Amino acid sequence: MTGRKLILSLFLSAALAACSDSGQKPAGSGAAGGAPQRPPQPVSVVTMKKSEQPITAVLPGRAAPFQIADIRPRVTGEIKQIAFKQGNEVKAGDLLYKIEDSTYAAEVAQAKATVSKAEASIPSAQANLSRYERLVNSGATQIEYESARVTLLQAQADVAQANAALNAAQINLDLTEIRAPFDGVTSISNVSIGNIVTANQTTALTTLRRLDPIYIDLIDSSTNLLELRSAMASGRLSGDPRKADIRLTLEDGTDYPLTGKLDMADMAVSETTGTYQIRALFDNPRDMILPGTYVRATVTLGNETGYLIPQRAATRNARGELSAKFVTADGKVETRIFPTSGVSGNNWLVTQGVTDSDRLVVDGFQWIADGATVQPVEATVDDKGFVVEATKPAAAKP
């Protein structure tokens, strides 16, 4: 029993000694006994400068042919010849199809014979009328004279009628040759040699499309239309949108090398989608753009003076307002809200809430809270949206 008491006494003595040693241990070198302070986090910033910039809109679009025609026969007959190579270009007036014309040629010959027969009665009717003109006062009655005059008029009418029939027969004969109404590219032929076609049938023989120039049909919202008109009315936007330059980005992401112009805009907004259509015209000399191709069009609406905020440096809040982070004069981060903004290329353009020399955070702002102390590092943003830090000057050699 005594041994157990001795062991317990020794254990308590050791514990008290340990506690005494812990209380006498000197404090560490950290500030106020805590962890050492972290240095300010470096962030890339762009110095803001007011300037006049183009206001642009990126709109979805689809190509449509400048001219399009479904080629149909206007007379009935058998296809005797297909004179074009399917899918190739043809010129206005080029022969596309030839319809069997023997029946129509016979009708022309018959009509010519009818004209000749009608013309043959004119001289005798004219001579008969002249004789009664001389005799009307010396024995011939007025009735006989009027009858001779009517006979001549009837003969002349018969000639006119015969000529009209001849013209109709000649037209039908000419229509057996189906020719291109304008320069364009043909589609696949829907008929073959030997097929019977009928006048004005519903099925087209082929479709002809003119691709140079070519239309681009663009879609924009009525909201953007109202904002554009408001900007023009207030004088903020300079330039005439009707003379805007339009550039295209093709489906594979490449830029189309030629610039287009506005051709027309619908004067009505769709009741179902709330959008309206804009039609642009582009030269297409190499047929690079084909009908039905989807594109993105960048439309330069005019110029406005303001500050550029790269799209990578901004976000939208729950109300859809543009927001961006800036570094204050004392090196702290703050968020600014811009209720109104425009688009200028790959940037937002704002006119309020920024002054010259303000420093915009362009990289890493997603993980920086307002009020945090940071170390600004001057940078630029290239055309593709990448941040490029400014080159520091080389240190002088001793």
Automatic annotation (TrEMBL):
Pfam families: Beta-barrel_RND, BSH_RND, HH_MFP_RND, RND-MFP_C. GO terms for biological process: response to antibiotic. Residues 68-207 form the Multidrug resistance protein MdtA-like barrel-sandwich hybrid domain. The keyword Manganese does not apply. One of its GO terms (cellular component) is cell envelope. Residues 23-44 are annotated as: Disordered. Residues 213-302 form the Multidrug resistance protein MdtA-like beta-barrel domain. It is found in: Cell envelope. GO terms for molecular function: transmembrane transporter activity. Transmembrane segments: none annotated. InterPro entries: MdtA-like_b-barrel, MdtA-like_BSH, MdtA-like_C, MdtA-like_HH, RND_pump_MFP. Its main location: other. Residues 1-20 form the signal peptide. Keywords: Coiled coil, Signal. Residues 152-179 form a coiled coil. SUPFAM superfamilies: HlyD-like secretion proteins (SSF111369). Residues 108-176 form the Multidrug resistance protein MdtA-like alpha-helical hairpin domain. Gene3D superfamilies: 2.40.30.170, 2.40.420.20, 2.40.50.100, Helix hairpin bin (1.10.287.470). Residues 308-366 form the Multidrug resistance protein MdtA-like C-terminal permuted SH3 domain. Belongs to the membrane fusion protein (MFP) (TC 8.A.1) family. This is Acriflavine resistance protein A. It comes from Neorhizobium galegae bv. orientalis str. HAMBI 540.
